Amino acid sequence: MKFLVTKEWQRAPFLKMLMGGVALFLLLFLATDVVLHHFQTGVSLSRTSEILFGNEAAFVDPVPLGTLLLWVHIDLFIGMLTVLILSAIAIRLSSSASKSTVWLHLLSLPALLAPITLTVAYLTSMQWMVVLWLGSFMLWHIMGVVLCVVILWRVWR
Protein backbone atom coordinates (compact mmCIF):
# COMPACT_ATOMS: atom_id res chain seq x y z
CA MET A 1 0.00 0.00 0.00
CA LYS A 2 3.05 2.26 -0.02
CA PHE A 3 2.27 3.46 -3.57
CA LEU A 4 -0.94 5.10 -2.29
CA VAL A 5 1.12 7.50 -0.20
CA THR A 6 4.20 7.93 -2.38
CA LYS A 7 2.52 7.75 -5.79
CA GLU A 8 4.95 5.06 -6.95
CA TRP A 9 2.51 3.64 -9.46
CA GLN A 10 5.21 3.32 -12.12
CA ARG A 11 6.79 0.46 -10.16
CA ALA A 12 3.51 -1.42 -9.70
CA PRO A 13 2.65 -3.04 -13.07
CA PHE A 14 -0.64 -4.48 -11.83
CA LEU A 15 -1.74 -1.08 -10.57
CA LYS A 16 -0.92 0.43 -13.96
CA MET A 17 -3.01 -2.24 -15.68
CA LEU A 18 -5.84 -1.74 -13.19
CA MET A 19 -5.93 2.04 -13.67
CA GLY A 20 -5.75 1.65 -17.43
CA GLY A 21 -8.49 -0.97 -17.46
CA VAL A 22 -10.80 1.12 -15.29
CA ALA A 23 -10.19 4.18 -17.50
CA LEU A 24 -10.92 2.09 -20.58
CA PHE A 25 -14.19 0.80 -19.10
CA LEU A 26 -15.18 4.33 -18.05
CA LEU A 27 -14.47 5.50 -21.59
CA LEU A 28 -16.79 2.79 -22.86
CA PHE A 29 -19.39 3.70 -20.25
CA LEU A 30 -19.36 7.39 -21.17
CA ALA A 31 -19.86 6.58 -24.84
CA THR A 32 -22.71 4.13 -24.20
CA ASP A 33 -24.33 6.52 -21.72
CA VAL A 34 -24.73 9.08 -24.50
CA VAL A 35 -26.30 6.37 -26.68
CA LEU A 36 -28.64 5.40 -23.83
CA HIS A 37 -29.71 9.01 -23.33
CA HIS A 38 -30.26 9.34 -27.08
CA PHE A 39 -32.99 6.70 -26.83
CA GLN A 40 -34.20 7.56 -23.32
CA THR A 41 -34.35 11.37 -23.07
CA GLY A 42 -32.99 12.43 -26.43
CA VAL A 43 -29.81 14.38 -27.03
CA SER A 44 -31.32 17.02 -29.29
CA LEU A 45 -33.44 19.97 -28.27
CA SER A 46 -36.53 18.88 -30.20
CA ARG A 47 -36.44 15.23 -29.08
CA THR A 48 -35.78 16.08 -25.42
CA SER A 49 -38.55 18.68 -25.39
CA GLU A 50 -40.98 16.21 -26.94
CA ILE A 51 -40.13 13.54 -24.37
CA LEU A 52 -40.33 15.92 -21.40
CA PHE A 53 -43.31 18.05 -22.41
CA GLY A 54 -45.15 15.83 -24.90
CA ASN A 55 -46.47 16.70 -28.34
CA GLU A 56 -50.22 17.03 -28.81
CA ALA A 57 -49.99 17.07 -32.61
CA ALA A 58 -48.19 13.71 -32.65
CA PHE A 59 -50.22 12.32 -29.71
CA VAL A 60 -47.09 11.93 -27.56
CA ASP A 61 -47.66 12.13 -23.81
CA PRO A 62 -45.01 13.67 -21.56
CA VAL A 63 -42.86 11.26 -19.60
CA PRO A 64 -44.37 10.44 -16.18
CA LEU A 65 -42.77 12.19 -13.20
CA GLY A 66 -41.88 8.86 -11.56
CA THR A 67 -39.96 7.76 -14.63
CA LEU A 68 -38.10 11.07 -14.84
CA LEU A 69 -37.18 10.90 -11.15
CA LEU A 70 -35.86 7.37 -11.65
CA TRP A 71 -33.69 8.60 -14.56
CA VAL A 72 -32.42 11.52 -12.47
CA HIS A 73 -31.72 9.28 -9.49
CA ILE A 74 -29.68 6.89 -11.63
CA ASP A 75 -27.85 9.75 -13.39
CA LEU A 76 -26.88 11.35 -10.06
CA PHE A 77 -25.51 8.09 -8.68
CA ILE A 78 -23.67 6.99 -11.80
CA GLY A 79 -22.32 10.50 -12.40
CA MET A 80 -21.03 10.70 -8.83
CA LEU A 81 -19.45 7.27 -9.09
CA THR A 82 -17.80 8.06 -12.43
CA VAL A 83 -16.43 11.39 -11.22
CA LEU A 84 -15.11 9.82 -8.01
CA ILE A 85 -13.34 7.00 -9.84
CA LEU A 86 -11.84 9.36 -12.42
CA SER A 87 -10.82 11.72 -9.62
CA ALA A 88 -9.06 9.00 -7.67
CA ILE A 89 -7.09 7.89 -10.71
CA ALA A 90 -6.30 11.43 -11.89
CA ILE A 91 -5.08 12.49 -8.45
CA ARG A 92 -2.88 9.39 -8.27
CA LEU A 93 -1.35 10.13 -11.68
CA SER A 94 -1.13 13.90 -11.34
CA SER A 95 2.14 15.66 -10.83
CA SER A 96 0.46 19.01 -10.12
CA ALA A 97 -2.26 19.19 -7.48
CA SER A 98 -3.62 22.53 -8.66
CA LYS A 99 -4.03 21.41 -12.28
CA SER A 100 -5.87 18.22 -11.31
CA THR A 101 -8.08 20.13 -8.86
CA VAL A 102 -9.26 22.50 -11.58
CA TRP A 103 -9.95 19.62 -13.98
CA LEU A 104 -11.90 17.66 -11.41
CA HIS A 105 -14.01 20.64 -10.37
CA LEU A 106 -14.74 21.40 -14.01
CA LEU A 107 -15.79 17.79 -14.49
CA SER A 108 -17.95 17.46 -11.38
CA LEU A 109 -19.95 20.68 -11.75
CA PRO A 110 -21.63 19.81 -15.07
CA ALA A 111 -22.10 16.20 -13.91
CA LEU A 112 -24.07 17.52 -10.93
CA LEU A 113 -25.84 20.24 -12.93
CA ALA A 114 -27.18 17.92 -15.65
CA PRO A 115 -29.70 15.89 -13.60
CA ILE A 116 -30.79 18.98 -11.65
CA THR A 117 -31.50 21.00 -14.78
CA LEU A 118 -33.41 18.10 -16.34
CA THR A 119 -35.68 17.96 -13.29
CA VAL A 120 -36.17 21.73 -13.22
CA ALA A 121 -36.89 21.75 -16.97
CA TYR A 122 -39.58 19.13 -16.50
CA LEU A 123 -41.19 20.82 -13.50
CA THR A 124 -41.16 24.35 -14.94
CA SER A 125 -41.50 23.60 -18.70
CA MET A 126 -38.72 26.07 -19.46
CA GLN A 127 -37.14 25.46 -22.84
CA TRP A 128 -33.86 27.15 -21.89
CA MET A 129 -33.41 24.65 -19.04
CA VAL A 130 -33.50 21.87 -21.64
CA VAL A 131 -30.71 23.68 -23.48
CA LEU A 132 -28.78 23.97 -20.20
CA TRP A 133 -29.31 20.24 -19.56
CA LEU A 134 -28.07 19.31 -23.03
CA GLY A 135 -25.00 21.52 -22.63
CA SER A 136 -24.07 20.26 -19.18
CA PHE A 137 -24.75 16.63 -20.09
CA MET A 138 -22.58 16.75 -23.21
CA LEU A 139 -19.89 18.85 -21.48
CA TRP A 140 -19.35 16.43 -18.63
CA HIS A 141 -19.29 13.46 -20.98
CA ILE A 142 -16.77 15.12 -23.30
CA MET A 143 -14.60 16.16 -20.36
CA GLY A 144 -14.84 12.64 -18.92
CA VAL A 145 -13.74 11.15 -22.25
CA VAL A 146 -10.82 13.58 -22.43
CA LEU A 147 -9.78 12.72 -18.87
CA CYS A 148 -10.00 8.99 -19.65
CA VAL A 149 -7.79 9.47 -22.70
CA VAL A 150 -5.28 11.47 -20.65
CA ILE A 151 -5.25 8.75 -18.00
CA LEU A 152 -4.73 6.05 -20.63
CA TRP A 153 -1.93 8.10 -22.20
CA ARG A 154 -0.16 8.56 -18.84
CA VAL A 155 -0.53 4.90 -17.84
CA TRP A 156 0.36 3.24 -21.15
CA ARG A 157 3.11 5.50 -22.47
Strand and helix layout:
Layout: H1 2-6, H2 13-40, H3 45-53, H4 65-93, H5 97-124, H6 127-156
How would you characterize the overall build of this protein?
- There is one protein chain.
- This protein has 157 residues and is mainly α.
- It has helices at 2-6, 13-40, 45-53, 65-93, 97-124, 127-156.
- It has one domain (11-156).
- It has six helices and no strands.
- Helix 5 runs antiparallel to helix 6 (127-156).
- The longest helix has 30 residues, at 127-156.
- Residues 1-5 have low confidence and may be disordered.
Main sheet attributes: strand count, strand direction, barrel closure: none
- Measured distance between first and last alpha carbons: 23 Å
The geometry reads as elongated
What fraction, in percent, of the residue positions are helical? over 70%
Q: Mean of residue pLDDT?
A: 88
SSE arrangement, N to C:
HHHHHH
Uncertain runs with pLDDT below 50, 5 residues or more? 1-5
Quaternary status: single chain
Q: In the residues, how many domains can be counted?
A: 1
Total helical elements: 6
Count of β-strands? 0
Instruction: Label the structural class.
Output: mainly alpha
